[in-house]
Amino acid sequence: MRTALVIGTGLIGTSAALALAGRGVTVHLRDHDTTRARTAAALGAGTDEAPEGPVDLALIAVPPTHVAGTLAEAMRAGAAHGYLDVASVKGGPQRELAALGLDLSSYIGTHPMAGKERSGPLAATADLFEGRPWVLTPTSDTDTEVLNLALELVALCRAVPVVMDADAHDRAVALVSHTPQLLSSMVAARLEGADDTAVRLCGQGIRDVTRIAASEPAMWVEILSANAGPVADVLAGVAADLEATVESLRALQSADEAKRDGGTAGVADVLRRGNAGRSRIPGKHGAAPAAYEVVAVLVSDQPGELARIFADAGRAGVNVEDVRIEHATGQQAGLVQVMVDPAAAPVLAAALRERGWSIRQ
Predict the structure, then answer these.
(1) Could you confirm whether domain 170-278 is CATH 1.20.1560.10?
(2) Where does the Prephenate/arogenate dehydrogenase domain start and stop, copy by copy (predicted)?
(3) pTM, whole model, 2 decimals?
């Protein structure tokens, strides 16, 4: 791949353009908002000047409802030898393109499983896709050369290619991406009218659950509108669990011992199934989730504190597998939860204490 055209210079389009430009591809940028295209160009993502002829690959990075129209326009203009989109929904755009009577041999639907709560070119980074799955949904009509161009794009962005059927992809993202977004927003919405006293008690649990609720509503309306059926199916299952759990919790307040026992069993069941589902989420390097030990370290909110912890762990010969930070409310301090192999936890705790760190159980 020598040349590419990126249509849509938001987070995903600009991040892909940055990755391609950084690896020697000449990237042309186009957006209905010319200011965004100029911003992306100023960031080093390419040029906002039009290409002189067809490019090797056109990457369509617009909302799902605009994918088919934008692709059709580019195809009819002969803008590229191969075309792909990066919308988070695949079945609908594919069917819309087929209905337009276009030759789909030069097109492949794709979806990089990466993103941020922030949007726009200023949020873009060249490493956004590194190590992340990038779904490809070829059909029997997809030309081999176009599939190879898509695979090259994924490689240049250092992502991991995953080949799926378009409708299977849509059902999967409804479960692992779109429904979590709605549930996160629903939980966060409970905080809008909550007493200030309750909000001040927010800890890491509520922060984790509501993190993605900060996402752009207009963008998510577009995404959910394009995948409404599969998302509604998943939510129907969640609603059934919610109804059963509400009944179980009400039963725990009953004076009837049998009802209380039933309520306990119901709550325990949903928690147990949650444990089982959580255990299926791939862990580090895509392997089965490992059981890490947490060494909690109290740190002040000062420059260099995290670097010192990691350096001290390295001196102790301990590999840090993961890390989380729990901020203290109203204090310039917090807990750094360093996750390590269970056998290494006592070694790390002793080494950090020796170097003056305050370890919390």
Answers:
(1) no
(2) 2-289
(3) 0.77
